[in-house]
Automatic annotation (TrEMBL):
It comes from Xaviernesmea oryzae. It comes from the Bacteria. It is found in: Cell membrane. One of its GO terms (cellular component) is plasma membrane. Residues 357-390 have a biased composition (Polar residues). Keywords: Cell membrane, Electron transport, Lipoprotein, Membrane, Oxidoreductase, Palmitate, Respiratory chain, Signal, Transmembrane, Transmembrane helix, Transport. This is Ubiquinol oxidase polypeptide II. It is a multi-pass membrane protein. GO terms for biological process: ATP synthesis coupled electron transport. Residues 19-116 form the Cytochrome oxidase subunit II transmembrane region profile domain. InterPro entries: CcO_II, CcO_II-like_C, COX_ARM, Cupredoxin, CuRO_UO_II, Cyt_c_oxidase_su2_TM_dom, Cyt_c_oxidase_su2_TM_sf, Cyt_o_ubiquinol_oxidase_su2.
């Protein structure tokens, strides 16, 4: 019986180790230099704190055992009240650790500032003088990610790619509520906020497919607000650009407004061309016709305000009512399954009722029938890109 109890006890001791088998350790094993430096900071900070935590835990257990009531050999001194040697150890060790931890954190905080341009590809390679960074403009929508590539004139939904060992300059904003852009293998998360632009500089050092997602709760479709990040060699990245241009449609203002409507589990979409100034219109919250851009409003404020005639601008400044319950359909397709909040019929991202989701999800037959060119489907979103194995035409230059 005693042997069986010991065996069961050992099994229970292994349970925490078995639970770790389902963990994704990408944060501690990243593929980008910025994420690797952040991992090193976590390791160094943890080790420095363990230098005091482990001895304290050990001594706590040791003193409890050493001065237990049944140990009559332990020295009993009820009049003891002070030891200079112990005071020096108790105060100097934690103080030294705090100084070291503070210095490491202060240096790393400035070195890993997401707004700071990169100065190296990895620990052994500086950035070549002729290297040209890749600019990616990111928009957090409800509940999907829109990526603009201004150097190539394309855009994608829920998929992005970047060449290996090429610095990436992210410009990040949101269309409605605050989100958080996060690719654990690439770099730390940074917030996406409407009417504001945050920045992130990063580089991917290994080929692979990595997960990206929103790390800030933003509503019903938050858990499905995910995308794939592809780290590719330059040739593979050129093929990816060519595939987007060959299979994508056009992203104009009307198509964006339909894409902006809340939807979850959004498929990958390609846009071979993008209307000029669309990202800036999203950033300035004036993608909707008739809205005043924030840059224009700030200029009016800078000039001292608009006076009495400024009351005419009131309707042009009501940004927060775009998804108001009383002015918008309650749910969109694909929907969360919750009943609509209004009596109006539900509509999808392409304006069709949910019974006709052709533009949202393409079956396998449609998938093999090819995709329209960039001059077609001007008024709607791009078709979902479920088959990414289609041979790409020769890569084109931006």
């Amino acid at each position: 019986m005693h042997t069986q109890l010991k065996f069961v006890g050992r099994l229970f001791a292994l349970l925490p180790i078995l639970a770790l088998a389902g963990c994704n350790m990408v944060v501690m094993s990243p593929s980008g230099d910025i994420a690797a430096q952040q991992r090193d900071l976590i390791v160094v900070a943890t080790v420095l704190m363990l230098l005091i935590i482990v001895p304290v835990i050990f001594l706590t257990l040791f003193f409890a055992w050493r001065y237990r009531r049944s140990n009559t050999e332990a020295r009993y001194d009820p009049e003891w009240h002070h030891s200079t040697r112990l005071e020096v150890i108790i105060w100097s060790a934690p103080l030294a650790i705090i100084i070291a931890l503070g210095a490491v954190t202060w240096i790393s905080t400035h070195k890993l500032d997401p707004y700071r341009p990169l100065d190296r590809l990895d620990a052994e390679r500086p950035i070549p003088a002729e290297a040209k960074p890749l600019t990616v403009e990111v928009v957090a929508l409800d509940w999907k990610w829109l990526f603009f590539y201004p150097d190539y004139g394309i855009a994608t939904v829920n998929e992005m790619a970047a060449p290996v060992d090429v610095p990436i300059n992210f410009k990040i904003t949101a269309s409605s509520v605050m989100n958080s852009f996060y690719v654990p293998a690439l770099a730390g998360m940074i917030y996406a906020m409407p009417g504001m632009e945050t920045k992130l500089h990063a580089v991917i050092n290994k080929e692979g497919e990595y997960d990206g997602f929103s790390a800030n709760y933003s509503g019903d479709g938050f858990s499905h607000m995910r995308f794939k990040f592809h780290g590719l060699e330059q040739a593979g990245f050129d093929e990816w650009i060519a595939r987007v241009k060959g299979q994508g449609t056009a992203l104009n203002r009307d198509a964006y407004l339909k894409l902006e409507k809340p939807s979850s589990k959004e498929p990958v979409r390609y846009y071979a061309s993008v209307e000029n100034g669309l990202y800036n219109a999203v950033l300035n919250m004036c993608a909707t016709p008739g809205k005043m851009c924030m840059s224009e409003m700030m200029h009016v404020d800078l000039m001292g305000g608009g006076g009495r005639e400024s009351h005419e601008n009131r309707n042009r400044l009501e940004y927060d009512s775009r998804h108001n319950v009383e002015s918008s359909p309650g749910a969109t397709f694909p929907a969360s399954g919750e009943p609509a909040r209004t009596q109006e019929p539900r509509e999808g991202i392409d304006g069709q009722p949910p019974s006709e989701p052709q533009s949202m999800n393409h079956d396998m037959n449609n998938m093999h029938q090819g995709h329209s060119g960039p001059d077609s489907n001007q008024g709607g979103p791009a078709p979902s890109q479920l088959n990414n194995d289609t041979p790409a035409p020769p890569a084109s230059q931006p």
